[in-house]
Specification:
alpha+beta; Chorismate lyase; six-stranded antiparallel β-sheet; Chorismate_lyase_/UTRA_dom_sf; Tscrpt_reg_HTH_GntR
């Protein structure tokens, strides 16, 4: 019951639950295991059982920024900027963005948060030529990259190609988004295009599997 045990709250101990409901601890343990299998609660070794927060879901088929997506769901978005700098493009990046090696690119890496809870690590690469001065002019702990590109650089992002895979997080990802070693993450690579079908952004996002899910619309 959400009103009794809200999302993120810790459940009473097995002993207390057994006493409250007048059942054996074996029965309580079976009930808790069923709730774990259903994805309602999760267990933390040495700490107890906690109610899962509802997952944020995204319907594929609509190109939106993280900020817009969170606002649509009534969630307060924020970001912690890890890197915001100009680099010279390596070969792998140039192939995706159709630029030559050594071209200046914007390197923007952020931990994306929903209601101050980290849910994703996002790393974006953009040709600096389409958005000169963007690193110095804007604070991407609050500003939306897509909105800045659209309103300040007349560069709206129109469509994208995206690939997804489930995998285990790296040690760095575990630390930055607060997941355990064995907790799966959703890895998404997206190339976003402008009006003229020119690639504008390469972004690699790592989403927490316990906080995020994707839905696909088939027609």
């Amino acid at each position: 019951n959400e009103s009794v045990y809200p999302s993120g709250s810790r459940l009473p101990s097995e002993r207390d639950l057994a006493s409250h409901f007048g059942v054996s601890r074996v029965t309580v343990r079976q009930a808790l295991n069923s709730l774990i299998q259903e994805g309602v609660i999760h267990s933390q070794t040495g700490k107890g059982h906690y109610v899962y927060k509802p997952k944020l879901d995204q319907e594929l088929g609509f190109l939106t920024s993280f900020t817009e997506e969170m606002h649509q769901r009534g969630v307060d978005p924020s970001s912690k900027v890890i890197h915001a700098e100009i680099q010279l493009a390596m070969l792998e990046i140039t192939e995706h963005l159709q630029i030559t090696p050594g071209t200046e690119i914007v390197f923007l890496q952020r931990v994306r948060q929903a209601d101050n809870e980290p849910i994703a690590l996002e790393t974006a690469y953009l040709p600096h030529s389409i958005c000169p001065g963007i690193v110095e002019r804007f604070d991407f702990s609050n500003d939306s990259l897509y909105k800045v590109l659209r309103e300040e650089y007349a560069c709206p992002l129109i469509w994208a190609k995206q690939r997804m895979q489930a995998r285990l997080p790296t040690p760095v990802e575990q630390k930055l988004i607060g997941v355990n070693q064995g907790s799966p993450v959703l890895s998404i690579t997206r190339i976003t295009y402008s009006h003229h079908n020119h690639p504008v952004e390469l972004v690699r996002s790592i989403y927490r599997g316990d906080q995020y899910e994707l839905g696909i619309i088939l027609r």
